[in-house]
Amino acid sequence: MEPEPKISFEDTAIAFSYKSNAELRKANFIFSTVNHPWISAAATGMVKFALNLRLPIEGIIKKTVFDHFCGGVSIEKSDAAINKLGAFGVGTILDYSVEGEESEEDFDKTLAELLRTIDKAKTSKHIPFSVFKVTGLASTALLEKVQRGDKLSDEEQTAYTRVKARVDAICRKAYEHKVPVLVDAEETWIQEPIDAMADEMMARYNKEKAIVFNTYQLYRTETLANLRHAHKKALDNNYFLGAKLVRGAYMEKERARAESQGYPSPIQPDKEATDKAFNDGLLFCIQHIDRVSLMCGSHNEQSNHLLVRLMAENGIKADDPRVWFAQLYGMSDNISFNLAKAGYRVAKYVPYGPVRAVMPYLFRRAAENTSVAGQSSRELLLIRKELRRRRASR
């Protein structure tokens, strides 16, 4: 048994050590805005209106929410954020956050960009993972048709073959460069073909260690069983399971669709059930760490504390390469930086891309911080605590 370190997620001096006073004041402004739902909704509406009219507001966006939640407009422009995080022991996961593409040409452009992120990771000690969404490489309508089991036309079958080839190209390069790659989870009505591709890639490239990681959304009622099944499949076929655990990102959309189409909601009935499933998932992965590599993708302080304790109880060192913690850039720095300071392996998801193209991502961050109970309030509390501490120390 390893001694359990005493980690405090209240230590704001460590949490915001990488932020200047000006950056901290900017964070205070951003989270003060999203902490008031009507102000956040009004601001978001005005930004969408201005963007639709092609008004020149991208400079304002870039200097505020973009700089807080994104690394840069390109891989190269993200270097400052990558190096800043790396100086404090926090890795970067470059997340190409351009959305809404639908043509084969766009999918191929996204593939080329994703391959560049792996090339970048190979040359940087501060980039431990790469990541992609299958919907960046495939039509959502096509994935939905595959999941329904509908017969594909010849053209659709050709397109789906290209999708699988793109996924393989990413995972093959990740394997060749020894850069683990995360396959993001998506909506339930397209998740089955994504899981199937992830399983196939793991069977192909995870023979020596986990290179390909699938993502498991524990707010879904069936995910814990899916995780156990994925582990059994890895055992039966002699490969390693890469598992990124998250609570989930599409709750309102999932419940609304289930209600409108008259099928049972695939989402846990309440937060307590989700928390239990997530923590049970952590326990399962740690109990099977000989075959599983785990990324805990969580902004929940209790779950991160639990994983620290489970590692200690099972004799797993803080810097064991099979266990990672991850949070989004611009959020939960109290978790990321305090864990990194204690020697744990931590990475931030760092979105990048042209300002206008990443706006859907930024709108989601605003909506989530407004709707998730206590998220923006907690961020604000910590930011203001650190501002007071800095004023008092001057």
TrEMBL record:
InterPro entries: FAD-linked_oxidoreductase-like, Proline_DH_dom, Proline_oxidase. It holds the Pfam family Pro_dh. GO terms for biological process: L-proline catabolic process to L-glutamate. This is Proline dehydrogenase family protein. GO terms for molecular function: FAD binding; proline dehydrogenase activity. Residues 81-377 form the Proline dehydrogenase domain. SUPFAM superfamilies: FAD-linked oxidoreductase.
